[in-house]
């Protein structure tokens, strides 16, 4: 652990997001074991991912943002509100602009969003998950940048806990790309490559987030809240609706409760 703590925060963020990308690839590798996944299992996994992201948004991002702001004599609600809404707005604009195809659990072909394009369905599906991975990588990078700033509210241990939580919830995201592509006739290898490719953006976003906040510390509380807002947008826009495709199905809700608990435990125990 000492060798990791001694690294520059940008390198810490890079290694941590390599881990989260690796878990995405691990989820995508399920395509080598099966052609389809039980709908209830995938619903529970998506609910779990939603719970992790909700907990991470508060415990690892919003709470430190408020505390950091108050330590610099700025009312805590200002960066929390401004950053949170800015993060959601950024994802909303990106969601409306970038062509992508949402994966579907109910057997339908999925919903195309963004500008009209002639891109293949496989590319659109990867773009959808890639879009959702941007705030996750950004959150990890900003967390390590915040730890390097030396504020008591943010530590390397809490940033590591966030990376572990993000990694856990990346598992179903990799599977949600590779398995639908396999059902559409792609080879297992090609479906896996597309699935893991959706996580490539996380190291990029992580490095950019860490570099930005270490060079511009006054924006740190806003950056933390921004990442939280972007993550909550993903949860409400994509994960919760997909986890509740079947009415009166409590599996997604139970998964979300477990995911929230796991992330809360990681942050409080390790942070």
Automatic annotation (TrEMBL):
Keywords: Cell membrane, Membrane, Transmembrane, Transmembrane helix, Zinc
GO CC annotation: plasma membrane
Keyword GTP-binding: no
Main location: membrane
Keyword Thylakoid assigned: no
Spans through the membrane: 12-34, 41-62, 74-93, 123-145, 151-171, 191-213, 219-239, 251-270
Alphabetical list of PANTHER family matching this protein: ZINC TRANSPORTER ZIP11 (PTHR11040:SF211), ZINC/IRON TRANSPORTER (PTHR11040)
InterPro entries: ZIP
Domain of life: Bacteria
The name this protein goes by in its record: Zinc transporter
Intracellular or extracellular location(s): Cell membrane
Signal sequence, start to end: none
Family: Belongs to the ZIP transporter (TC 2.A.5) family.
GO MF term list: zinc ion transmembrane transporter activity
Membrane topology designation: Multi-pass membrane protein
């Amino acid at each position: 652990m000492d060798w990791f703590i001694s690294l520059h925060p940008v390198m810490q963020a890079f290694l941590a997001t390599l881990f989260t990308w690796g878990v995405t690839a691990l989820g995508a590798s399920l395509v080598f074991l099966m052609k389809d996944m039980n709908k209830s299992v995938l619903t529970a996994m998506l609910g779990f991912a939603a719970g992790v992201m909700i907990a991470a948004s508060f415990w690892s991002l919003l709470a430190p943002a408020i505390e950091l702001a108050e330590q610099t004599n700025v009312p805590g609600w200002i960066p929390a509100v401004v950053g949170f809404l800015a993060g959601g707005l950024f994802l909303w604009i990106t969601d409306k602009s970038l062509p992508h195809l949402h994966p579907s659990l109910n057997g339908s072909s999925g919903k195309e969003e963004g500008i009209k394009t002639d891109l293949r369905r496989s590319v659109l599906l990867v773009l959808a998950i890639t879009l959702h991975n941007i705030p996750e990588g950004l959150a990890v990078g900003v967390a390590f940048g915040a730890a390097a700033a030396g504020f008591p509210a943010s530590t390397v241990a809490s940033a590591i806990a966030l990376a572990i939580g993000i990694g856990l919830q990346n598992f179903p995201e990799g599977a949600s790309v590779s398995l639908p592509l396999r059902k559409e006739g792609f080879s297992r290898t090609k479906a896996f490559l597309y699935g893991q490719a959706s996580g490539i953006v996380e190291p990029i976003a992580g490095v950019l987030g860490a570099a930005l906040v270490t060079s511009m510390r006054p924006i740190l509380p806003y950056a933390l809240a921004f990442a939280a807002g972007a993550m909550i947008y993903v949860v409400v826009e994509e994960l919760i609706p997909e986890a509740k495709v079947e009415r009166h199905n409590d599996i997604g809700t139970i998964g979300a409760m477990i995911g929230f608990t796991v992330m809360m435990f990681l942050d409080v125990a390790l942070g």
